[in-house]
Amino acid sequence: MNCPEHYFEDALAFFDGKPQELGLYEALFAVLEELFPEARVKVQKSQISFYGRHLFAAASLPLRRKKDWPKVCILLTFGLGERKDSPRIAVATEPYPGRWTYHVVLSQQSQLDETIKGFLREAWDFSQAK
After folding, report:
1. Is the pLDDT of residue 128 over 80?
2. pTM for the predicted model, two decimal places
3. Scanning 16, 72, 102, 129, which has its CA 20 to 30 A from the CA of 61?
């Protein structure tokens, strides 16, 4: 994974005071690094973004938490060119025709399974083809 010079310090600051969420993020980062070693990562104010040719995934802390979401969680966001129905997807929107944005709530490292890896591979392929 291609990380900017101050990536590790910036990632720690992003999750300041949230060690459990940091642990979830580190597990997600490891999955992304394994699947897409050529990807780039950028820590921003509201999310940590992952890029190939274009943005394909992001991790963030939930700002507006739904009542049934776990107290400790992070959001994984990714884009696809088609509608997906899955119980794993918490929110799906179509901001542009043929472009879907999905949010998945991650509260346990075990949730980073083949379903999530499949979504990430599809998001990578979709972003590379734009």
Report:
1. yes
2. 0.95
3. 129
